[in-house]
Design brief:
CATH architecture of the largest domain: Beta Complex
Distance between the termini: 30 Å
Radius of gyration: 16 Å
Shape: elongated
Number of domains: 2
Helix content: under 10%
Order of helices and strands: EEEEHEEEEEE
Number of helices: 1
Strand order of the largest sheet: 1-2-10-7
Number of strands: 10
């Protein structure tokens, strides 16, 4: 359904992106995050972890404070690079993030043509998170 390939904006390469291999119908789940393992660790352990694993500003890691018991860290990049990590930003996106059955998914907000890049708005979060 999707392929990874070089993405460009105004003739300038911006890295890799996701592209529709076939037409995608509005309302279709296009990409989904697999469930990731949560790890509990102390603040000190987290500081060491993000330095050693180059997670300084990585959106693929979610850290949730849990008080005296430390932190709950979810790192979706602990294995092979997932496809959703290649989604690029657009102010005119063709997918939106939703939270379904314990996973984040990107759903087509309109029909997506074969060969079109799949994008979403980085500033957007699923309604369930607000």
């Amino acid at each position: 359904m999707i392929r990874v390939g070089p993405a460009q904006r105004n003739g300038i390469g911006i890295g890799l992106g996701l592209f529709a291999r076939t037409p995608i119908t509005e309302g279709t789940i296009v990409v989904k995050m697999n469930k990731a393992k949560e790890t509990r660790m102390s603040e000190t352990a987290w500081q060491k972890y993000w330095r050693e694993n180059n997670r300084l500003h990585d959106s693929a890691v979610f850290v949730n404070s849990i008080g005296k018991n430390g932190l709950r860290v979810t790192d979706w990049l602990s294995g092979p690079t997932p496809r959703w990590y290649r989604l690029n930003h657009s102010f005119n996106p063709n997918t939106e993030m939703k939270y379904r059955k314990g996973r984040v998914v990107w759903i087509a907000t309109r029909n997506i043509a074969e060969g079109e890049e799949i994008t979403f708005d980085y500033g957007e979060v699923p309604d369930e998170w607000t």
